[in-house]
Amino acid sequence: MSFIDKAKNKAQDAVGKAKEKVGDVTNNDDLKRDGQAAQAEAAAKNVKDTFTKD
Question: What is the pTM for the complete model shown?
Fold first, then answer.
């Protein structure tokens, strides 16, 4: 996993956390779910990249 891939995954996770928090504060369940999905996708990429050789 390259440095750029790690940075992209961290950014996606951060955006997901922000969306989830804003959705929670504003009672917007769709935004909250979008944030949770973005975090899950970033976590899945991290796992995949951990076990994939370059």
Answer: 0.85
Amino acid at site 52: T
In the chain, the largest separation of any two C-alpha atoms, in whole Å, equals: 42
CB contact burial 37-47 (16+ within 10 A = b; e otherwise): ebbeebeebbe
**Dist CA 31 CA 39 (whole Å):** 12
Of 38, 31, 33, the closest CA to residue 13 belongs to: 38
Angle, helix 29-51 to helix 3-25, in steps of 10 degrees: 160
Beta-strand runs (E) in 1-54: none
pLDDT tens digits for 3-52?
888 899 999 999 999 999 999 999 999 999 999 999 999 999 988 877 87
